[in-house]
Structures are given as C-alpha cells and as structure tokens.
Amino acid sequence: MSGDISGNPGMTAVPAADVLEALYATLQSRKGGDPAQSYVASLYAKGTDTILKKIGEEAAETIIAAKDCASGGALERVKMVHEVADLWFHVMVLLAAYDVPLSALTDELARRTGRSGHDEKASRSPS
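Given the sequence above, the corresponding structure tokens read:
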C-alpha cells in the first residue's frame, strides 16, 4: 500500500520490519544518553515504572481514539493510527529497556500464526 492512512500520495510505504528494526536500534543507542537531550534517555533514567506508566497512558489514549474511529471518518482513523504508533513506540522502549530483542516478539507472533486464539490462550500456563 502506498500513501499514508490519510491517502497522501506523496508517502511511500516502508517495510514494517525495516521501520521496527531501525527504531529498536535507535532505542538501544539511547541507553546511557543525556536525558536532557533525548526523550528515550529520559525514560530510561526515570526507570521502568515511568515507562510502564507511559504505556498505560498510551493504551488509554488508543482506546479512546479507537472508540472515536468507530463512529468517525478519516481524521479519526488518522488519530487512532497516531495513538497506536505512540503505544507501540513505548512498548518497544520497554523491550529495549530489558534488552529483549525484537526477534523475541516476532518469533512469538510467528509461533501463534495459524493457531486459534482460543487454543493459544488455553495453552498458556495459569498465572
């Protein structure tokens, strides 16, 4: 698909894996960086609880945007995509904070491919 969610013909689609891998590398490079110069470095400096709080905030904003999207048009859809991007970004900050490689996430998603969601959930250990 070319163009962005709003139909901007000037946007060229970038392979998702390339974007995520480049972002993950950037997140890793911000470790030990100057919190005054880097938002991600400031999140790392504040600790995991701050990262988790941001994920919660972004998840709530995603929910609101999705509810608006259900009854709206193209602008609401753009806002929902923006909020999902914020959520994914902060989840990737968490993965990088714990040095969980992006491949661990993609491997887990691949493992689930072709399985019923109900079967996959039932196979998990009780928590």
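The CA atoms of residues 51 and 94 lie 6 Å apart. Try to locate this feature in the token string yourself.
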